[in-house]
Design brief:
Strand order of the largest sheet: 4-3-2-1-5
Shape: elongated
Largest sheet: 5 strands, antiparallel
Number of helices: 7
Distance between the termini: 44 Å
Number of strands: 5
Order of helices and strands: HHHHEEEHEHEH
Radius of gyration: 21 Å
């Protein structure tokens, strides 16, 4: 397995897609029930293959990720070859940007001496999707990139 198995909830959400996946392998509902009962390891393998296919499809489309902690924000823009980072670090432990008040403070005090903005870029490995998945496993979430684009203008103006 390349990524991680989808959760029970994700499988339920993708129920029809999973049925289509099984059908593409000429596995009927009756046969699937028999596989689950008689060969659970084969059922596990099928679920893993399906999970990887879903993850590949999702990761292929990822362009932006965000990761927040109490005093830091990491905004990623991902191209086919590079990952660009805008980092924001708050040097004031009283501020928690994961809370509404802390985030509002950051919006009003971007140029404060306790706010550090920095950028970085690096070339992705040969397996772009695995690099993205690693960031997601560390807590990053897929976004539309509004924050990255906003801070990109701030940093590059």
């Amino acid at each position: 397995m390349k990524y991680s198995r989808l959760t029970k909830e994700q499988f339920e959400e993708l129920h029809q897609e999973f049925i289509n996946f099984l059908a593409s392998q000429s596995i009927t509902a009756k046969e699937w029930d028999e596989i689950k009962r008689d060969k659970p390891e084969v059922a596990e393998d099928e679920m893993d293959v399906f999970s990887d296919l879903i993850w590949e499809g999702v990761l292929d489309k990822v362009t932006y990720l965000e990761h927040f902690s109490t005093q830091q924000m990491f905004l990623f823009q991902i191209t086919q070859v590079e990952i660009h980072l805008i980092g924001i670090k708050i040097e004031n432990e009283a501020i928690d940007i994961t809370r509404r008040e802390g985030y509002q403070w950051l919006q009003k005090n971007l140029m404060d001496d306790t706010v550090n903005l920095y950028t970085s870029s690096k070339v992705l490995s040969e397996d772009r999707n695995k690099d993205i998945f690693a960031l997601i496993q560390q807590g990053a979430v897929i976004t539309k990139g509004d924050l990255f684009q906003y801070f990109d203008k701030v940093v590059n103006s």
